[in-house]
Amino acid sequence: MAENNNKKQRVYLFDTTLRDGQQTPGVDFSVDDKIAVADMLDAFGLDYIEGGYPGANPTDTDFFAKKRTQKAKFVAFGMTKRAGVSASNDPGLAALIASNSDAVCFVAKAWDYHVRVALGCSNDENLENITQSVQATVKAGKEAYVDCEHFFDGYKANPDYAISCAKTAYDAGARWVVLCDTNGGTQPDEVRNIVKEVIAAGIDGHRLGIHAHNDTEQAVANSLAAVDAGARQIQGTLNGLGERCGNANLITLIATLALKDKWSARFETGITEEKLSELTHLSRSFDELLNRAPASQSPYVGASAFATKAGIHASALLKDPATYEHVEPDRIGNTRRVMVSDQGGKSNFLNVLARHGINVRKDDSRLDTLIAIVKEREASGYSYEGADASFELLARRTLGEVPTFFSVDSYRIGVERRHNASGQLITVSEGVVKVTVDGVQHMSVSEGHGPVNALDLALRKDLGKYQAEIQDLELVDYKVRILNGGTEAITRVLIESTDVSGKRWWTVGVSDNIIDASFIALMDSITFKLLKNRGTAGLSAAE
Amino acid sequence: MAENNNKKQRVYLFDTTLRDGQQTPGVDFSVDDKIAVADMLDAFGLDYIEGGYPGANPTDTDFFAKKRTQKAKFVAFGMTKRAGVSASNDPGLAALIASNSDAVCFVAKAWDYHVRVALGCSNDENLENITQSVQATVKAGKEAYVDCEHFFDGYKANPDYAISCAKTAYDAGARWVVLCDTNGGTQPDEVRNIVKEVIAAGIDGHRLGIHAHNDTEQAVANSLAAVDAGARQIQGTLNGLGERCGNANLITLIATLALKDKWSARFETGITEEKLSELTHLSRSFDELLNRAPASQSPYVGASAFATKAGIHASALLKDPATYEHVEPDRIGNTRRVMVSDQGGKSNFLNVLARHGINVRKDDSRLDTLIAIVKEREASGYSYEGADASFELLARRTLGEVPTFFSVDSYRIGVERRHNASGQLITVSEGVVKVTVDGVQHMSVSEGHGPVNALDLALRKDLGKYQAEIQDLELVDYKVRILNGGTEAITRVLIESTDVSGKRWWTVGVSDNIIDASFIALMDSITFKLLKNRGTAGLSAAE
């Protein structure tokens, strides 16, 4: 990534979003989710992708039905063989080795207390389980890694035994021996000193990894302290997902290793400059998949990470950003935001409009009107950040360019739960829409899966002379965010659409009525499609 | 706070929530907000509360109309006097000194580049401004502090000048000289080394502070590195509020300094054990004031900070929490949570059932039935980890204990968007519900904000003899998650309810119809409430 590559040491990135990240309260990946996340990670250039624990639950078993990565090593996680059975007679171990993974990452206790209490076996049996599990895996032609669980707490309680566990894994042929701060309370200096001790005990740092948790908000610092002390693999997750307070945040670590001199002068990862510039996109896409709002204050990738509203800083910032920003936002695909209601804000708007192919003069009063409308809508719950098409429509309408292709005179939705003729309890949703096109009213009715689907189907059933044009319009995603509490809450609906051209666009609707919010977003999607067909919208480079 | 107080060094906590925290995008404190936050901080035992910049804006000027703290030093923030005027002729400086504060914290440039470009004065003039501002403040009987802005970047560019700035402030009599990582990109080892250099240059560490930002997710680590190197004041904010990625999180720092041996053995703060046990409350109350949901993964104080859903961990955790938790949740007023999920094993289930006051033998076949049902439902989109009440109902039903208080024979929801008599476009939602209680059918109709609200209101309008019992039932939160794409998607609804007892419970519903999903969750909420009134549900300790 820089000129003197030869002198740099390679640090390997091991993603456990799909395994430890799955322990996050509120997170529940489906097999499709896992496939999507593995694709993102693989394309981005992560070295290792841990997919889950095949055999432990149906989702993970299905996910490991085939190999899910192209470039990254695809890793199955699981326990070492049990005490009292041989490696060849342990069905759990056999399933791990037989799974469609490139490697198996074993979790092994490294704190003698846990060996006794949780495993109920002797210290020596635990070591023997590590040896046999690693050897059986290697013999089967796969790489074996060992996560030494509770390593740091175990080291404090019994350093000799903790080191024995790591050394046993190492000697048995584990490609990576990973020191885990399972409870997350270890401080960076402790991590640094203990990693040094482990290396001094004869384990090559190039086969040593760190697995940190964020329970004292220092998972990133702990990971870097371990690298500083000689470890060469970092385990972490996208956006710091993970059990309790989360794992080390790989997004932050990727950026820091690449962009902060202290690290980039000595180390390199497998992430190219080009991929690095997609880091913000990666982080936000993952939040989208989790259907949660990206944290605006996230380091490097948050919407506020390069934002300032301080008057004194804001004007100086624009003179010379480099002295007010610790890194250039472009490097990770983020953007600078100056939140002042003056020329800075206005030129920001002009840039966004230009990106949509809309050119307007800075002193055009319609620009002030547009800014005022956007501010007012955002105050009422709209967010145009994720809804480019709705923003473009609003801008074109305010600048007086959008024809009224059709109008919806009224709609009516009914949802009924009742017993049918056979006595079964059924729920039927029906939508009726009256649309006027060129003075002619078209009335359509449709049933659907739920009220929004019924409305959608009825609305797109008969648009008169435009109907043929929207046949290829497809709604690919529908997201709902409740903006405040209670069943009378304000609802924001975000719809993603596409057509045969492959282009995707996003529209938004906000209302205290989820049907109305959906209706607004659907109308924008259809109108955008019609404009796009005419080549008068959707001109931006971004998809 | 511990036995050998005499040997411990005092670390002082300086809160800048009301000053640097106010730079957070989306945060805008009113004077009343500031008064409330200052009260919280003062009562908690913070040493210094920086309230803002009197004279810079009307809010801060009003806030400094009187002294706002009882115990903590009340600090006004502002710039040193300008070059070219004497201290006695600078109205900004005069206003700061005249404000109703105990102390003034001056921000002073410590990077020669910024002295030249942003201030437009000479390096010596900048030093002279520091000296005169500090001296004038001390002469007026107030303490003076100096925030050395851009100190670490400035030190890298010109170490002699950066140190001169700090030394000038120190020699002029500043009680605290604070080294600021203004751009937030400095790494912990750099902070440690530079703080050592500053102390070596003749500045007593007992008058040295650290002000860190979280741009590489290491504000906490940087603050602690500075303390380790000899600094004795930490500036930070509640929940890490602040410009861009935020300031150092004082909540995390307070807990870490008090509870992690590495720090508590050597240092003490002004926070008592008793106040420490209110830390979770402090953090969440502050989020309440900001009207935002507390981050569940926050270290120490988040709802997930002591939560686990891992089967293998969950069973061991309950045997001996100390070996699975880096600190006791009670110490900071937080609680342990063990959650049911796809991930959990049988002992996990038994523990969760026991926590709900449901005792069942491990070999009871109904337990296997329950586990099978939960797994099947989770596969179809249910998630019980956030829906304790629905889980308890399902468990009690499977174990055959829940009476049918009432049944809903049918419901019907209509949503209509049309022009009203005055020609305005309106959307009306109406719900009709037929309920049978003791063989008597009750039919209710209600309008609402959207279809779900209409259904909710109609459902709770007339439950016959149970109606009086549910008058205090209140729905406090309603969340929707779309589990897959398109408007025909599977929808998961999560409802949070409460009543006069203050207890809160969560229920869940899943369907391809959002109305049905909401209906299922509403039914569970009402049924749970009725059971709870009878003392036959909701027996768990956790709220």
TrEMBL record, chains A, B:
<dbReference type="InterPro" id="IPR005675">
    <property type="entry name" value="Citramal_synthase"/>
</dbReference>
<keyword id="KW-0412">Isoleucine biosynthesis</keyword>
<protein>
    <recommendedName>
        <fullName>Citramalate synthase</fullName>
        <ecNumber>2.3.3.21</ecNumber>
    </recommendedName>
</protein>
<feature type="domain" description="Pyruvate carboxyltransferase">
    <location>
        <begin position="11"/>
        <end position="277"/>
    </location>
</feature>
<keyword id="KW-0100">Branched-chain amino acid biosynthesis</keyword>
<dbReference type="GO" id="GO:0009097">
    <property type="term" value="P:isoleucine biosynthetic process"/>
</dbReference>
<dbReference type="InterPro" id="IPR013785">
    <property type="entry name" value="Aldolase_TIM"/>
</dbReference>
<dbReference type="Pfam" id="PF22617">
    <property type="entry name" value="HCS_D2"/>
</dbReference>
<dbReference type="InterPro" id="IPR013709">
    <property type="entry name" value="2-isopropylmalate_synth_dimer"/>
</dbReference>
<dbReference type="GO" id="GO:0043714">
    <property type="term" value="F:(R)-citramalate synthase activity"/>
</dbReference>
<dbReference type="InterPro" id="IPR036230">
    <property type="entry name" value="LeuA_allosteric_dom_sf"/>
</dbReference>
<comment type="similarity">
    <text>Belongs to the alpha-IPM synthase/homocitrate synthase family.</text>
</comment>
<comment type="pathway">
    <text>Amino-acid biosynthesis; L-isoleucine biosynthesis; 2-oxobutanoate from pyruvate: step 1/3.</text>
</comment>
<dbReference type="Pfam" id="PF08502">
    <property type="entry name" value="LeuA_dimer"/>
</dbReference>
<keyword id="KW-0808">Transferase</keyword>
<dbReference type="InterPro" id="IPR002034">
    <property type="entry name" value="AIPM/Hcit_synth_CS"/>
</dbReference>
<keyword id="KW-0028">Amino-acid biosynthesis</keyword>
<dbReference type="GO" id="GO:0003852">
    <property type="term" value="F:2-isopropylmalate synthase activity"/>
</dbReference>
<dbReference type="InterPro" id="IPR054691">
    <property type="entry name" value="LeuA/HCS_post-cat"/>
</dbReference>
<dbReference type="Pfam" id="PF00682">
    <property type="entry name" value="HMGL-like"/>
</dbReference>
<dbReference type="GO" id="GO:0009098">
    <property type="term" value="P:L-leucine biosynthetic process"/>
</dbReference>
<dbReference type="InterPro" id="IPR000891">
    <property type="entry name" value="PYR_CT"/>
</dbReference>
